[in-house]
Amino acid sequence: MNQEIKHRKSFTVLGIQSSVKQGSESTELFARIWEKFEAERDILESLSSSKKYYGVNFPTDKVSISEYLAGMMVPDDTLVPNGLVKRFVPEGDYAIFECHVDSIGLSYQNIFTKWLPAASVLFYPKNPVFEEYPEKDSALPVSLHIPVTKNA
Questions:
Q1: How far apart are CA 138 and CA 128, in angstroms?
Q2: CB burial class (10 A; 0-12, 13-18, 19+) of residue 4?
Q3: For an engineered disulfide with 94, which of 60, 84, 145, 150 has Cβ 3.0 to 4.6 Å away?
Q4: Calpha distance 127→147 (Å, rounded)
Q5: pLDDT at 16
Q6: How far apart are CA 38 and CA 41, in angstroms?
Q7: Which mean pLDDT values do the consecutive 10-residue runs of the chain (152 residues) have?
């Protein structure tokens, strides 16, 4: 799998958040989350500082539960409209992979079961895994960001 390791600066995302139980991930689940995003897209685009879309999977204190936020990057001081959630993505090192939107699930599976066990870096579970989608062009690749740290 082709990837590059890059340091990403922190940023803030505003959007629709849903709890996701490990093992329940499916195309249908994420399609429902992004449908809710679509209902708020005009508001989000008007507040956004970038035209890209983000799917951010935040870790939680609960075993096997994460919070998935479908949204857009906004300035840190953006006021939060009713029904939306604003979250901070901390800076860090990320292994970045590109794939087509239709192969996100398979790409994650390959990253975590094949690439990561053999990699010279370790998964850093305190930072979120996230997808960076190009602006309104499904022909362009999605960038998958896996938080990593140096292997001690």
A1: 23
A2: exposed
A3: 145
A4: 6
A5: 97
A6: 5
A7: 90 96 85 93 94 94 92 96 96 96 92 94 95 83 95 66
Kindly tell me the number of DSSP H helices and DSSP E strands found in the chain: 3, 9
Strand partners of residue 148: 93, 123
**Per-residue confidence (pLDDT) for residue 140, from 0 to 100:** 87
**Three-class SS of residue 23?**
coil
Residue 139: what pLDDT?
A: 78
For 49, residues 6+ apart whose C-beta sits below 8 A from its C-beta are 73, 74, 75
Residue pair 87/13 in contact by the 8 Å Cβ criterion: yes
Q: What is the three-class DSSP state of 129? A: strand
pTM exceeds cut of 0.90: yes
Closest CA to 7 of 121, 142, 135: 121
How far is C-alpha 113 from the geometric centre of its chain's CA atoms?
19
Delineate the domains of the chain, giving CATH numbers in brackets. 4-150 (3.20.80.10)
